[in-house]
Every structure is written in C-alpha cells, then in structure tokens.
Amino acid sequence: MPGKYHKNLNKELNKIGKELISEIKSDIVRKKAVDTGKMKSSIEYKVDDLSNGGSIQVEAIDYYQYVDSGTRYIKPRNFTKDSIAKVVKKNKDNLKQAAMKDIEELIKQTIYKK
What we know:
Elements: H1 2-5, H2 7-30, H3 38-42, E1 44-47, E2 56-59, H4 64-69, H5 79-111
Antiparallel strand pairs: 1-2
Helix pairs in contact: 2-5
C-alpha cells in the first residue's frame, strides 16, 4: 500500500519523475534530436509500486530507445542515462529524507500496537 506506508517517498519519486522528464526533453533539444517533436512529446513517467521497492519508469514512443541508445547506424545520444545521473545526484538527499520520514511514521504507527 504505497499511500499508507510510503507517502513521503511516493511524493518525492513523483516530483523526481516530473523533473526527470523535463530534463530528458531539454537534453533532446540540446543534442538536436528533434525532427517532428513526436518523440519528445511522447515521453512520460510512472512510479511503480513502492511495496516492492519502487522505481520510476520512463515511457516513450517505440523508436525512442534507438535514438537514445543508438544503433549501428545512429550514434547513442544517452538522454535517459545522462538525465538520470543529473536528477538523482541533485535529489539524493531528498530521497533519503523522504524514506526516513516514512520509516519514522511506520515505527510510530506500530510501536504501540500489540
């Protein structure tokens, strides 16, 4: 139950997801990988179930992976990898604090129960 036990972490992951998508889209423009804009506008994120550890998934149009990772005909652009590194580095402390708040709240909820 992410809402009950992981509300701070869930909130932080959603904030980071929005920031990550914004950074990926900016990186696509910086690296001049925009033709029609369809790929850029297709990029979204979702936060997976926190009861299993949680993660942020980036979703996009099917050919995004080829432009991002490259092929033998296209050099890799690494939008995802570069953006993740930048956003995680910037938000690492916020993630730790959110997780600690959730742990504290869980302990407080269970400490008096028998």
